[in-house]
UniProtKB/TrEMBL annotation:
Keywords: Membrane, Transmembrane, Transmembrane helix. This is Probable blue pigment (Indigoidine) exporter. InterPro entries: AA-Vitamin_Transporters, EamA_dom, EmrE-like. It is a multi-pass membrane protein. The keyword Hydrolase does not apply. The lineage of its organism: Bacteria, Pseudomonadati, Pseudomonadota, Alphaproteobacteria, Rhodobacterales. Residues 7-133, 144-274 form the EamA domain. It is found in: Membrane.
Amino acid sequence: MSRTTDILLTALAPAIWGSTYLVTTEALPSGYPVTLAALRALPAGLLLLALTRCLPPRVWLGRTFVLGSLNFALFWVLLFVAAYRLPGGVAATLGALQAMMVIVMARGWLGTPIRAGAIAAATAGVLGVALLLISPEAQLDPVGVAAGLGGAASMAAGTVLSRKWQPPVSALSFAAWQLTAGGLILLPLALIVEPPLPTLSAANLAGLVWLGLVGAAATYAIWFRGVARLEPGAVSMLGMMSPVTAVTLGWLLLGQSLSPLQFLGAAVVLVSVWAGQRADRSFRRPDDSLRPRRTSRLSVGE
């Protein structure tokens, strides 16, 4: 596939993640963030494992749990803490800092050069998200800010390490490993810190199915495919599609109003995402053909 196709397909994942806020607030019970995160990750991971029939070998178990923690368990827990303690716009803006963190981490772990254009695009994207989401009366909570920054750093590290640690399996299998590991980490934590879920309604179940099958299983397979094919900084910029989608869905489905400043913010985000792809388009790792690697299936013990 062409690079443009890879970008558009990868951008689909964060665009779908933008529906998470709408589904969570409208279709899921409130007050169970860790439990819902576990129910989102673990069933999706187990389903993908059943489909791919590819288990991580022993030598990959440690890396798999590190990535599952960074990309799912730690990231989702910190994300919920930030969402509970900060206005949504502030939390999303802190999350947008992930793009800058990825650029710095990729320099240290992958040897990727830091380009002025990529830094400028990431900075513009953060400002665009702030214009799109932060209201003048927004207040900061130190714990919430720390959680927001920690969540951005966790996802940034997971993105870069997912590029550095590429197993010889499909993106679908790689997503299955990480989702299962993340769910296994989250499940005992949920049992310890949260009460049992109430009886779930049809709407609750539909919301969980959407977040698990589409918002986790399908989209993270697409995301990790993009991580393997595109430069990390370019991939992280695509994550800014998520707040744009969230605001658009609120406007279209919930009747939320948008000010001219918010429309400007959305335009700035979209332009910054485009600029980020342009800034990083020349990057190629010497040992990376940018094609998915296909090998025979692995099993535990190989």
